[in-house]
Amino acid sequence: MARTRKKADRNLELIDALATLERDRGMPADTIFSALEDALAAAYPKTPGVSATHARVEIDRETGEIRVFEQVVDEETEEVQSESYVETPPELGRIAAQTAKHVIHQRLREAERQMAFEEYEDRTSEIVTGIVEQHDPRFVILNLGKAEAIMPYSEQIPRERYEIGDRVRGYICEVREGRGPTIVVSRSHPGLVRKLFEMEVPEIADGLVEIKAIAREAGHRTKIAVASNDPNIDPVGACVGPKGSRVRAVVNELRGEKIDVVAYTDETARFVSEALQPARVRGVSIDEESKTATVIVADRELSLAIGKEGQNARLAARLTGWRIDIKSESQRAAGEQPPSAATGAPGVFEPTAPERRGRRGGAEEAQPAAEPAGEPVPEPATPEPGAEPAAETQEASS
């Protein structure tokens, strides 16, 4: 009786130990049992007095009883030809114990990596918060808790500095499986702005306000076009918030990046006019064949419409999906083509953006607008006299 009670106690201790391991590691009990069975099967042939080269081990999930089956395996095909039950050795020996320990740790590491991959593989396009664990000019490593994420140089915001221990929000743009899950996060992706607005603006989360398009140059300026699905809700006012509180929260998270919130409309001329805010547009003519919008502004508004190094017009072109040709009133009267602020080339701004990857702080591709860029847009109605598109536009900076 004493011997039987000792065996039962030993098995109960095994069950308790595996339950503790399950609780601490946060993985299913079957995974731990399988890892222990494989470890004991690998260790059994190395036990003193054992001549078998292959074995199978079963552990009863309820009682913890260990059963060993010696196997005869064909060396060429590695198929199991027969197996027979043998009495479990009372001691596995030092070498067997070391082997079992090594196999258990290896299997647990693999299980943890698989669990981390399964947790994050469906979280692409979400925001995560991590603590900076390591940084150098090439990348930043973020500790997400159960996994680590990497933020490459090309996905960082220009001139943004990261110190060990900083809490940083990142946008998951890719999850790859390898020796361990590789989670790639970005601070320069336009999706980060979209998700931040969804977090700050309840109307967007509820579907009452919709983000139609985003054009971003990370670290400098972002233009976001919004529309309302409820006629009683002003989409721009909802995104800006009381006294600018909502858009200010996004600006602070992006460490001072300027954000222009403009109203989206199906009327191409008015949408182009809105996208060029804060400049006031006198008139817009549309050429659907070449998909070009010719914009007329007052002489004093020309530099504001183009922006520093053409940034405002460039973002507006990408936000709307139309080529934008900006002229002042005097240039239109003289039939002149204005020079670009950046290059001195004709002042036509293309809606396409440079390739994002591989460039730090490069222009970010705008999210697709409601109307694909390749489809002709119906002739817009002429804006009503006295309309002030600037009244619906807000610009915020830290």
Question: In a nutshell, what does this entry contain?
Answer:
The protein is built from eleven helices and 17 strands.
Give structural attributes:
398 residues, alpha+beta, N Utilization Substance Protein A, Chain:P, domain 4, OB fold (Dihydrolipoamide Acetyltransferase, E2P), GMP Synthetase, Chain A, domain 3, 5-stranded mixed beta barrel, 5-stranded mixed β-sheet, 11 helices, 17 strands, 31% helix, elongated, disordered N terminus, disordered C terminus
What does this entry look like structurally?
There is one protein chain. The protein has helices at 2-25, 29-43, 94-120, 190-200, 202-205, 235-240, 245-253, 268-275, 302-306, 311-320, 329-334, and strands at residues 54-59, 66-73, 80-86, 127-135, 139-143, 148-152, 167-176, 182-186, 209-217, 221-228, 258-263, 281-287, 292-297, 323-328, 348-349, 363-364, 394-396. The chain is of the alpha+beta class. The chain folds into three domains: 2-120, 2-Layer Sandwich (N Utilization Substance Protein A, Chain:P, domain 4), CATH 3.30.1480.10; 127-186, OB fold (Dihydrolipoamide Acetyltransferase, E2P) (Beta Barrel), CATH 2.40.50; 190-396, GMP Synthetase, Chain A, domain 3. Strand 1 and strand 2 form a beta hairpin. The longest helix is centred in the first third of the chain and has 27 residues, at 94-120. It is elongated, with a radius of gyration of 32 Å.
Tell me the series of helices and strands, N- to C-terminal.
HHEEEHEEEEEHHEEHHEHEEHHEHEEE
Structural domain tally: 3
What is the CATH superfamily of the largest domain? K homology (KH) domain
| Span of the ends, CA to CA | 78 Å
CATH fold-level label of the largest domain = GMP Synthetase, Chain A, domain 3
Average of per-residue pLDDT values: 78
Biggest sheet strand line-up: 4-5-6-8-7
CATH architectural group of the largest domain: 2-Layer Sandwich
Major pleated sheet: 5 strands, mixed, barrel
Task: Count every helix, treating DSSP H or I runs of 4 or more residues as helices.
Answer: 11
What share of the residues does DSSP label as strand, in percent? 25-35%
| Helical fraction | 25-40%
Rg, alpha carbons: 32 Å
